[in-house]
Amino acid sequence: MFRTRSRLADGREIIYFDDRRGRVPVPDPRDLPAVEPRCESRRDPLTGEWVTITAHRNTRTFLPPADQCPLCPGGPASEIPDPGYEVVSFENRFPSFSARTPVPARSAGSARPEGSASRGVLDAVDGHELFPRMPGTGRCEVVCFTDDHDATLARLPLSRVRLVIEAWAERTSALSAMPEVEQVFVFENRGVEIGVTLHHPHGQIYGYPFVTPRTARMLERASAHRDATGGELFGDVLAAERAAGSRIVRAGEHWTVFVPAAARWPVEAHVMPHRHVPDLAGLTEDERDELAVLYRDLLRRCDALYGAPLPYVAGWHQAPVGEGRDLLRLHLQLFSIRRAPDKIKYLAGSESGMGAWINDVPPERVAERLRAAG
Ligand SMILES: [Zn+2]
Fold first, then answer.
1. What pLDDT is attached to residue 109?
2. Hey, which CATH number is domain 213-372, 3.30.428.10, 3.30.559.10, 3.90.1150.10, 3.30.1370.60?
3. Is the pTM of this model over 0.90?
4. For 332, phi and psi rounded to 5 degrees?
């Protein structure tokens, strides 16, 4: 894998990933104003969770016509100046978190926000201590999987899927090294039903300045499990799933694909390594090779379920940068809101209001259908 760094017209970083050596980046010809993100995270006093407010993102590009796609290479509206590329990652022009967010000077008495990156400077909304607030520092990148506007990750050659995995791992390392970042989330949203605003095959990477609520909860559970049993929660779950077998979709030498016993979504699958690895950067060459095969296979099974491209979210759960690296095992969670060819599951009162999930589709049945779709 060869990596080439460059800068866009407004100073944002862009990184090309190629299988072959020799890329010479084309300068960005645009006249772009400097990025001025205003990201702010406020802690909900009732749940302790950070909520991020990004007023500048309301003007972002929304479903442009194909000839104005910002992810197609080399066009006048393109974010990627080169006339062609394999895999490329660049700083999002409309970020939810950005190290460019102005950070006020730390005053002598200011505390480090609980559960947040050390650069965060804590003040409070209305000056009230119940409403802690910090700048939404961090990093958001867009990762393009191909320069072909009409392709899908599921239909790309294996070598390209492998290169995407290599880019994910490299960006996980790079963002983890940023002082603003506490946790790196690599994910893909696919389909307008999921809320995708650009059709070009791409994913995103968020470097959060805090540990996310789901990760914090998993760390608590893994810690309690270790105290109670001495065992490693993710390894024990994987062993139990493999022993039961009824929810296994496919297993390899290094990875297992399964539908979790308490799946929340009408279609949900997890892809978990057999070894304890905290993040994508920690995977061996052999593990990356097999992941490319199994992940592409899972995406193809998903598209075969209803005979049409499945709208999905696929996200990599990774251990935070600075804690719980022995507790949280890397795994992929893929889910879809499609519960029938013409039916979408909306997050209604119980899920949205209470966080209590009701799933109409038995996980064992989903696993059976995903096995049959291979
Ligand atoms: Zn495009």
1. 45
2. 3.30.428.10
3. yes
4. -95, 140
